[in-house]
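Quarterly update from the structural biology core.
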Amino acid sequence: MTQAGSLGWSESWACQPARPDRYLPARSGCVTVTRGDLLGGGREDLVVIYSRLAGRPFAFPAGSGQTAYQARQAMLEVVQPDGRAQTVPITGARAASLLSLARVNDSAGEELFLQTGGISSGSYGAIYDAYHGRVVRAGAFSYGGDSGLQARLSCLPGSPPKVVQLAVVPSGSLNGPWRGTRITYVWSRGRLVQAAKAAVAVSDPIRFGFTSGIGVGCLAGIGAYRTATGGTVTPATMPAPTPPPALQSTSGLERDAVLLDSFTSWRGVMYASGSALNATGPFSGCHTACYPTIWAYSATLKRWQLRFAGHLTPGGSNQLITFDGALLDFNTYPGTVLLRATNGRTFNLVALPARLAGSLIAEIYRARGSLVAVAIPGNGRGAGSAAPVWTSTNGTRWSPAAPVRTAR
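Predicted structure, tokenized:
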């Protein structure tokens, strides 16, 4: 769960102060809490990511009611089931957010992927692991990008498991070729050690740009998981899905691709949501023709099966979450569309209140038996104003709650 109201920290380092809590020191903010076996003890640890805040708040117009402080240092706290805890600074970061907690090597426990910053030309992050029961920083990485830089991080199974960082920049025209480096790392004592480095050329930078980011192996893990039919599948070895014919571009300007940005395992099946990309020009991304899709991986057929595709709205970020016996997919920017299925096959549109449908969903999480959505009004152009919080007890009927205050 991410603390509501801490939006835009990667640009302004602005955090709303957190409520007092036994796991947090005084004057903390930009808090994210999750659970997972980071230390490799076979039981779930409590993982707390937060920032220590400056003493003086940002200056806001009189009467705005906003309160935010500048983040000074990002921290990582890990609390074991027996209460023992250790806290380490997140090197070089004022604030950080959770990307994934997944098993990506052959040692016990999971690895923690954090975003520690981001600008228009991409984001950067850090990986934390455990060695002999101690939290250690495994390495740093970059991902995403724009017309000046594209980067991809992949976590691959093997003997030994590997992490591959690929980064390319244009060598002339934006349409290609692009050139860069591929660095391969292996794991040693909880840290990433460079094993190989090679020059690479990308002849189709537009397609590469659609698949830049963080690979499914880093998000879902590379360990095999058991399916509902009793089989097993390794997420990192899944092939990339292909857009259905109804969504394939006829412009001839570029190849079609599918961008997956949310994954979850539900009832023994791996689901992914994303967008079928039919852009009409270089690096146009999802702003011109990009439609929400939901996929399920078939362990028996060893391929992705399309469960939903529709020309609903130009799509952006997707967030899958399970709640109240159903699988929900929030497709947001511009506006928000909510799809819901109780059987994993038939997805239906949920009628959202107009204000929620016209907003961008910044966070979605479960809390105290309800589903909570933090929205930014005006398709994301309302940053700096009150961000409404919406709640639902069943995922279909939504009502506004008290707003949280955000800052830029």
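Helices lie at 9-12, 205-211, 216-220, 354-357.
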